[in-house]
Amino acid sequence: MEFIAPRGYQSIYNPSIPYVGPINGGLRAGMSIYIQGMMHHHISRFHVNLQCGEFDGCDIAFHFNPRIQFWDKVIFNTFQNGTWEGEEKVHEMPFHKGRHFEMVVVVNSEGYQVNVNGRDFYLFQHRMPVERVCALEIGGDVVIDTINIIGGGSMAYPGGNLPVSDIPYSDMIPGGMTFKRTIIIRGMVPYGADRFGINFMVGASQDIAFHINPRIQEGLVIRNSLINGIWGEEESGITRFCMTLFGTGMKRQKRLTWFWNCCKFFLYNIPWSNAKT
């Protein structure tokens, strides 16, 4: 089943490398960029740039450049007014030749938080206003499967916005759930949190078609259904990426975006699990 991108969500599939393209609506704090790809066996380097135009020589707010050579390292930098600024070097290589990778760049008020394969890797602090960034460029010895830019454009859904002020929260879904309908929930996990739950309920029957219950302290995410007052068999999983997104005690609270598309559950657009129907 094909995933249909909602508003505020931009997808690029199997782009040719080098790739350069716009970020619809520009970049701002609270957005994230998810890149899934694979490194060539013969790789020496590749780069990801968040830049202020789609032309050669434009300013680059965020330059990410893994170099697999004599000494593995990842370079971070900014290119402004025709000049590269001071490099920030990390002498650690989170990528491996011939292997697939998942990379998330989370834009926050401090800078660009880079996560690779479910682990916090580095925070590159802002050197220029993030609002100037309007394009993404990728080049080098890399194959890209998907690029997903989350949180851009307008996040409004006519007739479908359900603002949440208090937890626990309960409300009707306007029009109910339909085939390929997408629901987005955005929030933060507070420090010291133990668990929370999201339930998709069947009218006044109190049946729960889909129950998801991240248990942060246990490192588990439970999925289940409640039919006629009886819970079904639990599905559970432990994942490094789950702990990165739902973990507490971090330096910064994490922003979370869920995509639930006809029993498919997404974390930062990673198709993380299927719910049985």
TrEMBL record:
Keywords: Lectin, Repeat. GO terms for molecular function: carbohydrate binding. InterPro entries: ConA-like_dom_sf (IPR013320), Galectin-like (IPR044156), Galectin_CRD (IPR001079). Residues 19-150, 169-277 form the Galectin domain. Gene3D superfamilies: 2.60.120.200. Pfam families: Gal-bind_lectin. This is Galectin.
